[in-house]
Amino acid sequence: MKPSPRRWRPVIRSGSRIRLFTDLDHNRFIAQSSYGLTLIQMCLAIPAKIIAQNGNLAQVDFGTAVLREVNVSLVKAKVGDYVLVHAGYAIQVLDGQEALETLRLWNEILQTEA
Amino acid sequence: MTEKAKFRDAKLASRIAGKIRRAAQSEPTIKICHVCGTHEYTITHFGIRTLLPSNIEVIAGPGCPVCIVPASEVDEAVELAQRGIVVTCFGDVLRVPGSEMSLLDAKAQGADIRVIYSLTDAIKMAQTEKNKEFVFFAVGFETTSPSTAVEVANKPPKNLSFLVSHRLIPPAMKLLAEMEDLGLDGFIAPGHVSTIIGSKPYEIFPKTYHVPTVIAGFEPLDILMSVYMILKQQKRHVPKLENEYIRAVHPEGNTRAQELMNRVFDVTDSNWRGLGTIPSSRFILKNEHRSYDANLKYGVKIERGTDIQQGCKCHLVVVGKIKPTECPPFQGGMHSRKPSRSLHGQQRRNLQNMGQNNKPADATHDSDIDQNIKSLQPTKCLQSISPLSKRP
Fold this sequence. Notes:
A: SH3 type barrels, 1 helix, B: 4-stranded parallel β-sheet
């Protein structure tokens, strides 16, 4: 999937101390504050693919091809797995098979039930 | 994920919405409650409520761990910051009002308060700036608690301690299920909390309270499908616990995370802003980790604060009894955004407003909210903090 072009839309208008922008997918939030630009994901848990792993730390791709470091000590994951990342920690491995199964189940429900 | 687009497919959404509409035709009003800020975000952002028939209502419960942090805990963080300790926290905690001020106000007055994305940032700072004392204001439900547990178990630097404010969501759901005037017909259980705790903690809701419960993911189709699953359960009059988010939630949850949390945390009763005291609803550090407990280390413990300001209706919004738009101070009203604006000016305006309406802020539900209303307090609206809390 092509990463969405990096266009930032304001979420909080100026006048507050922190100005918040989001990309088109509302997946990533950037805050402009006195510390400069900081990527804030707040309470969202976002899927990411593990590209490299070294013990408890892993380099993951959130879909932008920019790698970020994430702590994976809470999960049993390997390179190539997709994990849910929350505030810098992977909290669970995403099961691709179950994702496809979910979609298949939905189609079945939509087709067969009245 | 490459498959994400399929979980947002518009055609699929309208098919599911059609099914919901047909299934709901002969039903009375159905009230479904979710308890997750991210669920509310998805619902608002993708306009889910516009796809549902008028007899299905989806309300938002106390799903934001930031908004239910009591003023006393914000006061503790402010107190620590004013003593010269570096307070690190997530971005959304900054603007939560304490009894007197928020962390943002304290920062405007010169305290060293730093917004971080991850606890690892706080640890790196503590390791680099060895001459300073650091505190991490640990806010969050069971999705965030494991990361605090992992780092405490790993013995972080001695100049870092934790103000642990983590809470558990099933006890709050229990409170909502017991509120008879709320009349819930279904729960949408929080997906990412469930990746950690599994499905067992929700079993009491269909079993004891006869409320259909579905664990839902965060794509718009996940939520639509969960509404449909609850509707089906309602029609069959057999409440069950179902998992819609099978790609991320296993029945046993994340056992490694649970084991770490059991090793590091004890569970205690606690005050939730707007809800009062909920039993067994908060994590605190175990005795053997007390050297990392900021309350003990610095002798700062504030029992009560002003949770509900004059005119504030957070206690009604947080249980879904009114919408944020029905609350007078929401998005402007009588609240001051700029920390530098004179408090006196605000107090003068408050006095003028109070003259018109002499009724004190009323609590209309059962739990024991401390209505310790101080006069001349500028009204601050919690719901205005998060840009994600806007609802149609």
